Amino acid sequence: MRDLRQQWEMKREESGASASLVVLQELVRRRPGGAGFDGKRVSDWAPRDETSFKVPQAGSDDRVLALVRVWAEPAGEPVNERWWRDLLEEAREEQARERRHRHDPQAGPGAEGPAFETVATLGARALEVHAAVLPDHSPDEAVPDLPPYLSRAHDDELFAALRPVLDGGPSLLAMMTGDSSSGKTRALYEALRDLAPDRPLLRPLGAESLLGLLRSGRVETGVVLWLNETQRFLYGSNGESAAVELHQLLQRRAGVLVVGTLWQHPYWSELTGQGTPGAVHAHAAALLTGPCTRHIPVPSELTAADRVRWQELAHRHGDRRLTQALKAGAKDNRVVQHLSGGPELLVAYRRGPGEHFSHVEHALITAALDARRLGHRAPLPAALLAAAADGALDARHRPADPHWCAQALAALSTGRRPDGSRTDIRNTLTPLTALRARSGEEAAYEPADYLDQHTRRQRAGVLGTASLWQALLEYTSDPEDLVDVTDHDVTTGLFDAALSRGLYKLATLILRKAVLAGQSVAECELVSLLSRRWDPRGHGLCWVAEHADLSRPVTTPSTASDAMKSIGIVQEGTPVLIDPTRPFELPREAAEAREIVAALHAAADRAATVHTFSKGMGVAAPQIGVGRRVAIVRPAEGDAITLLNPVVVEESSDTDEQFEGCLSFFDVRGKVPRPRTLEVRHQDFGGQFQTTIFTDGLARLVAHEVDHLDGVLYVARMAPGSSTISVAEYKGTGQNWWYSPRSGA
C-alpha cells in the first residue's frame, strides 16, 4: 500500500494535481465502499515509515479497497478484490498471533490462533451490531456495514463510566437499555473500539456458558465480558446462579469490565422486579440494581439538536444512509431504527404471506415469533419450526420438496433464495438469524429482535396453532423453557402460557415432560393441577409418585454426570481435558495460582453437595476449564493437598488395581492399576520445590490428578480388554479402598 501511495502521489504531482489528504478523502468517498472514509487513516494504513503501519480493523475492508482503487487508477493497474481481502485477513491473523505471543510467551510466535478475541479482531458484525442499509442498495454495490456514528448524551455517560474500570479501578457492569434497534449495541462497540480495542474480550453463548467462564477463573483483571442481549444470561436457575457469581466477581476483583444490553420492556422491568410481585429474579435484580452496575438508558428518539447534528454528519461524510434514515423517521422520529431497516421489515411481515415473504417463509417466521412470545427462550431448532409451520400452512401451499424447510430457513437467515431473489430488507436485514454452538453443527434460529418486540403486543391474545403447541411440546429441550423455576411461588414458561390460555391438557403434558426432565417444581405444580379437577381417581398422582423424587427440595439432574455438569465440572469431550497443561512461573504467577486453587476448592465444595466422597477426592484445573498445572486433593482423612506444577519422579513397582471414578464422566467406574507408592516433586506459591511421598489410597488420588494435568483420563490406564461399569453396577460407593498389608511389613 505504501508503494501504491507513493506512485499515486508522484503521478498527481507530475500532472499538477493536488495529492493532499483532503483531496484523497473526497476521491475515496466517491468510490463504492468509500463512504465515511477518513483521510487520517492513510498515515495508519500506508505510512511513510513502515514501522508505523497499523493493520486495518475488521469491518474496514471496503474502505481499504476504495482507497486502493483510487491509488491504482493512474497506473492502470487492476485491483484483485479477493486477493486484497485475503491479504487483510492474513494480516489480522498475524497480528492476533503476535498478541498471543505477548500474552503467552511459552506459546511461541508461530502458535496458531489468537489467545483471545478483541473488539479489533472481531469487528462489528461478529458482535451483533446492526448493519445500516440503503433502500436502493444493489447487492453488487460495496457499502460498509456501519455508517458514521453520531455520539449522543448516553455515549458521554458510557465513556465516563468505562474509563475508570479500564484504568484498573473498581469493576463495573455497564448496562444499556432501550427499545430494539435504538443503538445500544453500537454504543458499546464504539466505546470499546475507542477505549479498549485490544483488551481480551470473552463472549459466552448463554447462562450455562457464562457460569463456566466465571467458575473457570478466566474473567481476570483487564478482561471485557460481552453480554449483548443480556436476557440470554440472566433468566432461569442458571441465570440466577450466573448473576450471583458475576455479582461476587465484580465486588472482589478490580479492573473487570462487563457490558450488556437489554430491552427496557419487558426484560429490564422483569429482571429488576419493576411492577412484578415477588422476588422472581432476586439475584439478577440485586446485580442490575446494585452499586456494581451502571444503568444507561438509550433514547428511542433523537432530540431536535441531535437531528441537526445528524444532518450535518450525513452532509459531511456523504453517506446516503444517514440522509435516508432521517427522511424515513420524519413522522415517528425513530431515525436510528430506520437506519437498520427494522420498521421496513415489520411492514413486510405485516403484509402477510404471498407478498415479500412466501407462504412457507411467513409461516416459519410466525412460528419463531410465537414460540418466543409463549416462553421458548432458547434458540429454536429447525425441527420445531418445521412442524409448527407445516401444520399452519393451507394444504395448497405445502411444498412437495422434502428439503423445503432447510431451503426456506437458509433463505430467511442468509437473505437469498436459491433462485437469487431476496428475503432480506435492503440486502442486509434478515428476519431470522442462524446460531451454531460449533462449526458444522445444525443451526438453531432466533427471530429478528425488532420483529419480536413489535409483534408481541399485536399477537399477545393469539392462542397459537395446534401444530405450534405440539411442536413446542415435542421439541423443547430446555426444562426451564417448559416451566421456569427461578421462584417457587411464581411459574412462567410454556406451562404458564398454556394454563393462562385455558389449554389445561397441554399444560399437564408440559408439566409431565418437565417432571421427566427433573424439574422439582414441576412435580408440585402437576400434583396441584391434577388434584383440583382432572384426576378424580388419582391415576395422575400415582404417576407423579412413581416418576418424581418428592423428597428433594430442588431440581436434581437425571444422571451423575449431569449433576457434576450442573455444578460447573467440565465434562468428557471438552478439549481442555486432553490437552497438557501449562506450568506456572512461580513466584511471579503466585496470585493467579492462588485464585485457581480457590476456584478448585469451591468446585470441590459444590461436588460434595451432590455426592459423598468416602475415598477422598480431587479436582484438577482442566476440570474447571483452566489449562494450568495445578490440582487439589482432599483425602478421606487429613488436610487438603495442593499440587502446584507436580511431576512424578519415581513410582513403586508394587501396584494394585482398584475402581476409580472421575467427575468429568461420573456415570461409570473403571478398574485402574496404580503404583502403591508415588514420589512427586512440586512447588509452593513462593516457588520453592519440595518432594512428597504418597502411599496407597492417597497415591491413587494424586496419580489420578497428575494424569489430568497431563491430559490423560483414567480409562487410558485401564488394563487391555477391560471396560467401565455403570454406577448402578458398582458396589463400592460409600466404602474406602482396601489395601493388603505390604510384603515384609
Give a summary of the structure in a few sentences.
44% of the residues lie in helices and 13% in strands. It has 745 residues and is an alpha+beta fold.
Radius of gyration: 30 Å
How much strand content do the residues show?
5-15%
Estimate percent helicity: 40-55%
Number of strands: 18
User: Ends: how far apart?
Assistant: 79 Å
Main sheet: strands, sense, barrel: 5 strands, parallel
SSE topology sketch:
Blueprint: H1 2-14, H2 21-29, H3 42-45, H4 61-72, H5 81-103, H6 119-126, H7 153-166, E1 172-178, H8 184-195, E2 201-202, H9 207-216, E3 224-227, H10 231-234, H11 236-252, E4 257-263, H12 264-272, H13 282-289, E5 293-297, H14 304-317, H15 320-328, H16 335-340, H17 342-350, H18 359-374, E6 380-381, H19 382-392, H20 404-414, E7 432-435, E8 444-447, H21 449-456, H22 466-475, H23 479-482, E9 484-487, E10 490-492, H24 494-500, H25 504-516, H26 520-534, H27 539-547, H28 560-566, H29 590-608, E11 616-620, E12 630-635, E13 641-651, E14 655-660, E15 668-675, E16 677-683, E17 689-695, H30 696-709, E18 725-726
Parallel strand pairs: 1-4, 1-5, 2-3, 3-4
Antiparallel strand pairs: 6-8, 7-8, 9-10, 11-12, 12-13, 13-16, 14-15, 15-18, 16-17
